[in-house]
Write a structure and sequence with these properties.
alpha+beta; Zincin-like; Gamma-B Crystallin, domain 1; six-stranded mixed sheet; 32% helix; 26% strand; globular; signal; G_crystallin-like; repeat
Length: 459
């Protein structure tokens, strides 16, 4: 009996290994492609195929394409059950390139980049890297998180997304000279959409990448799409409009990107109405704060998270809050929100110190034009365990104030995706977070059997 079980298990293992072994040859059967491809290299992550005209001296794709695909899976997750990227190279034919994903029968349900015309003799530098990496970007946008389609493709085309993806990959793989070359190459590059003279990389994607979390902010965009955007049967059911595009990138960054979009693309009445509707249709907040304001009573409609500060009507509108539109509020313990009928903190006002399900009872429904968020005391206090973190948002040192004995406690910090980005043992009343990218994080303090969690914003 044991021998039978062993034989069955061995058979399953052998079949699994064989199913994951890329074929030695592959007959093309897509578009005008009809070449018989030969497998030149493979490992656990990549299979490289050449047609007969690619020089045998070209070997840089063996390492580079594997490194790219490993990086992609580490950042964005897996793409189907086959771990391989199939990288196809041609010479003297098929100019440009194209991708395919594991959803597509046309390429035998494999993640594929197919590029030409070569000759690929740069040794793995410059344009050879650019075009190969560009096609991988299309796989990421078209098959992330197990969902088929790219709802943003009509917005960013072929493909402004690939430009920031290529830059991130070069940095992620330690190819700083290539990243610098690519960055410089794009500084003066303009496009005619959505308006003539648009600098997509310089004025939109690079500021997002540089200011709001780098690699993580790119991944968060696709995570939000998978969580909220309409889909059926494992595919997105429609494309995004401009307002939805700005809204989802705002969710990824944790701040309203309406001002950045206005600067980069201009801001039309159509974009404004689409943006406002998107916040209603997909009511996720941008980041976190000590107070949240809602469009409808009972915390319905769009939600905007606010930190400590004074917000004029213009500032509120830039964050997506319309004039005379707030109907309910949530306020963290230790903070208060002062609402004003008029702009610039004038007119009748009311102070809210706890959650308020509907401002109708306060005669303040749909009447706020400006507001102030402030701490009731010098720092926010949580009554249950007296563990206080400050300042929040934080730039350099996150400090702790507690009556609990926490010396020797384990400190862990997680990003929005739940990934641990820092770990330390608490020996002082502060921790240096200056090297963390801007974004929202969760602090987890473990001491014996007790765990305390706090959320903070790294500015």
């Amino acid at each position: 009996m044991k021998r039978i079980i062993y034989t069955l298990l061995l058979s399953i293992v052998v079949q699994t290994v064989m199913s994951q072994t890329p074929p030695a040859t592959w007959q093309e059967h897509w578009f005008e492609h009809n070449q018989l491809l030969n497998r030149k290299f493979y490992d656990n992550d990549v299979a490289v195929y050449y047609d007969n005209d690619v020089s045998a001296s070209v070997t840089w794709p063996y390492t580079y394409m594997g490194d790219v695909w490993r990086y992609v899976k580490n950042v964005y997750g897996n793409f189907g059950s086959d771990a391989h990227l199939f990288a196809v190279f041609h010479t003297n034919k098929y100019s440009g390139g194209h991708p395919s994903t594991y959803f597509d029968a046309s390429h035998d349900y494999r993640n594929v980049i197919d590029v030409g015309p070569g000759p690929w003799t740069s040794g793995g530098t410059g344009g050879d890297l650019d075009i190969a990496t560009h096609e991988v970007a299309h796989i990421v946008e078209g098959a992330s998180k197990g969902i088929k389609g790219s709802p943003a493709f009509p917005i960013w085309g072929d493909s402004k997304w690939a430009e920031i993806f290529i830059y991130d990959v070069y940095l992620g793989l330690g190819k700083t000279s290539e990243a610098t070359r690519w960055y410089n190459q794009l500084q003066n590059q303009t496009d005619n959409f959505p308006v003539t003279g648009t600098h997509w990389f310089r004025d939109w994607f690079y500021p997002i990448y540089n200011n709001y979390g780098g690699t993580q902010v790119l991944n968060r965009f696709f995570t939000l799409l998978a969580q909220y955007f309409p889909q059926s049967g494992g595919s997105y059911t429609r494309d995004m409009n401009w307002g939805e595009f700005i809204h989802f990138w705002s969710g990824a960054t944790g701040v309203s990107l309406k001002p950045l979009a206005t600067s980069a693309f201009g801001w039309t009445s159509t974009m404004d109405s689409q943006f406002n509707q998107a916040r209603i249709d997909f009511p996720f907040a941008y980041g976190t704060g000590v107070a949240s304001v809602y469009k409808h009573c009972n915390y319905g409609g769009y939600v905007t998270a606010l930190g400590v500060g004074n917000y004029t009507l213009t500032q509120l509108q830039n964050m997506g809050v319309l004039n005379d539109d707030i109907s309910s509020i949530k306020v963290n313990s230790g903070y208060q929100v002062q609402l004003f009928w008029d702009d610039n903190f004038s007119g009748t006002s009311i102070t809210i110190t706890s959650d308020n399900t509907c401002l109708v009872a306060n005669n303040f429904n749909d009447k706020a034009s400006s507001l102030k968020v402030s701490a009731v005391s010098a720092t926010a206090r949580v009554a249950t365990d007296k563990f206080i973190i400050y300042p929040n948002p934080v730039g350099q040192e996150l400090r702790f104030n507690t009556t609990q004995p926490v010396a020797g406690s384990m400190i862990r910090i997680q990003d929005m995706m739940g990934r641990e980005v820092m770990q330390a043992k608490l020996t002082t009343n502060y921790i240096d977070v200056s090297k963390l990218p801007s974004g929202v994080y969760t602090l987890v303090v473990t001491n014996n059997d007790k765990t305390i969690t706090r959320r903070f914003v790294k500015r």
